[in-house]
Amino acid sequence: MIGRIAGAPVVLSPSFLLAAVVLTAAFTPSVQSATGLGGGAYVVALVFVVLLFGSVFCHELAHGFVGRARGQHPTAFVLTLWGGQTTFGTAASGPGTAALVAAAGPVTNLVLGGVFLALARAVPNGSLLQWVLWSGAFSNGFVGAFNLLPGLPLDGGQLLEALVWAVTKDRTRGMVAAAWCGRVVAVGVVGWGLLWPFAQGNQPTIYTVIWTAMVAMFLWSGASQVLHGARQQRAVLGLSVPGIGRPAVAVDFQESVAAAGARAAAAGASEVVVLSPDGRPTAYVDTAAAASVPREQAGLTPVTAVAVPLPGGAVIDGRLTGEPLLAALSAASRLSPVLVALVDGRVTALIRTPDVVAALRP
Fold it and tell me: Which residues neighbour 17 within 8 Å (Cβ) at sequence distance 6 or greater?
């Protein structure tokens, strides 16, 4: 961490410094070829790299300040090998906010690029200062334009996600559409980086091949993570007690194994919950243990003999769905891996942690 802005830490990854060195070495030959500068080409290349990451930093700050103005509080500004990332403590409240926050970064870079371009035209042609200003114009223009490509994890993908979200009223559908477009963009980057030089009668340099492959892998990986997250989010939104719970019936603690089994069969339930004298769920029947009781002894064996105790608080509201249900399950599962669902004080289902995990698996 190198400081704080708007209450959020600014984090500089070690990979950022590695990228600065590698990019300077990569761009110097191109600068020498384009400008005819000798040792000054290293200065221009280094300044270009510094301005490039400065552009990224301004880009991320724009996201953070606009997000903060729209009720999202930034939690970190991170600069890495791949550029930057702004994280927020809360999700966007709607597609309008998501679109504004996404657009803030590229717009900032395009405006800065225009400023550098105007300054470059105002200084003597061919001077070192002019080449530095051209570097600022190009770096900001590149960051702004590249991030507007319509695919996640880029800002253009977030704009596409917001558009689909606004039209369909389904954010998950927007995430899926923008993530697939992100995969298309990744393939397009490979095609542009490797095939375009051949179309110009040249061969791509080793630096071009390496960086093109790395950027494409970054985009593909980011899009794939969004797809996985969207599927998991859809699973969370579809979460319900009938979908993850096993139908249960409640019996008094004085009932026999036979009576409890008969009541469960009559109710079409697969689980039995034992109630304490004051009517609270206090245990659940171990079905394997109950099945091992000889039939002639089932009517004489108390149900508590084949029951597993439940700690107090191992209950949830059976009417909950989606994220509120997941939050309740997460809190209650700290007490017990088996939970009882109640609706208006009546036992409706028994929920086991493995069933919840299976339901959340995309």
Answer: none
Residue 151 DSSP class: S
State whether 231 and 250 are in the same domain. no
Q: Whole-prediction pTM value?
A: 0.76
The three state secondary structure string of 219-279 is: HHHHHHHHHHHHHHHHHHHCCEHHHHCEEEEEEECCCEHHHHHHHHHHHCCCEEEEECCCC
Strand partners, 340: 315, 350
* Per-residue tokens: 211: 């960086």
Distance CA 168, CA 163 (A): 9
Q: What angle do CA 147, 68, 61 make, to 5 degrees?
A: 40
Q: Count of CB atoms within 10 A of residue 60's CB?
A: 25
Specify burial of residue 255 (Cβ count, 10 A radius: 0-12, 13-18, 19+). buried
Q: Side chain identity at 302, as an amino acid letter? A: P
Buried b (16+ CB within 10 A) or exposed e, 13-23: eeebeebbeeb
Cβ neighbours for 340, distance < 8 A, ≥ 6 positions apart:
248, 273, 281, 284, 310, 314, 315, 316, 347, 349, 350, 351
Domain boundary among 196, 211, 237: 237
Q: Between the CA of residue 311 and those of 250, 274, 284, 303, 319, what are the distances in Å?
A: 16, 12, 11, 18, 21
| pLDDT tens-digit readout, 58-108 | 999 999 999 999 999 899 998 876 678 899 988 898 999 999 999 999 999
> pLDDT tens across 322-358, in order?
999 999 999 999 999 999 999 999 999 999 999 999 9
Q: Both 50 and 186 in a single domain?
A: yes
Residue at a domain's end among 202, 237, 272: 237
Residues 40 and 102 in one domain: yes
The angle at the Cα of 156, spanning 181 to 47, to the nearest 5 degrees, equals 120
Q: From CA 250, how far away is CA 274, in angstroms rounded?
A: 6
Q: Please tell me whether residues 316 and 350 are part of one structural domain.
A: yes
Q: Which residues of 27-37 are buried (b: 16+ CB within 10 A; e: fewer)?
A: bbeebbeebeb
